[in-house]
């Protein structure tokens, strides 16, 4: 297997033309984007190691899936425990919205601390 390296001249330097292998596109949602930003800002070595080994996209997509499942599960569990039901929504919409916003904010903090910012 022969690998020929080509170069592009940039000013006084010859830079190699490097290209990462093609990867299957995977969706990276809000949780994956938060994880990417955290790794890029606080764990640069891990970020660049995963990026250059073509594992970053898979890692971010996996984190996104896991965080989405955890978020949905916790929101429904908290709503059930606190009695936030469709009946409450029909009777008092503002109270339902306030309680659901409170639950969503708490669950977001839990997901961030358990999966994203570790």
Please describe what this structure looks like:
The model has no long low-confidence stretch (mean pLDDT 93). It is elongated and about 70 Å long. It contains 5 helices and 2 strands, in the order ββααααα. α3 packs antiparallel against α5. It has a two-stranded antiparallel ribbon. It has one domain. The protein is mostly helical. 66% of the residues lie in helices and 7% in strands. The longest helix is centred in the middle third of the chain and has 26 residues.
Which key phrases capture this entry?
2 strands; two-stranded antiparallel ribbon; mainly alpha; 118 residues; 66% helix
Walk me through the topology.
Layout: E1 7-10, E2 13-16, H1 30-42, H2 44-52, H3 56-81, H4 86-91, H5 93-116
Helix pairs in contact: 1-2, 1-3, 3-5
The percent range for helix content is: 55-70%
N-to-C series of helices and strands: EEHHHHH
Counted up, domains total 1
> What oligomeric state is this?
single chain
Distance between the amino and carboxyl termini = 41 Å
**Morphology call:** elongated
Percent strand equals 5-15%
**Tell me about the biggest sheet?**
2 strands, antiparallel
Number of DSSP strand runs? 2
Major β-sheet strand ordering: 1-2
Q: Could you tell me the radius of gyration in angstroms?
A: 22 Å
Broad structural category: mainly alpha
Number of helices: 5
Q: Mean pLDDT, nearest integer?
A: 93
> What are the segments in which pLDDT stays under 50 over at least 5 consecutive residues?
none
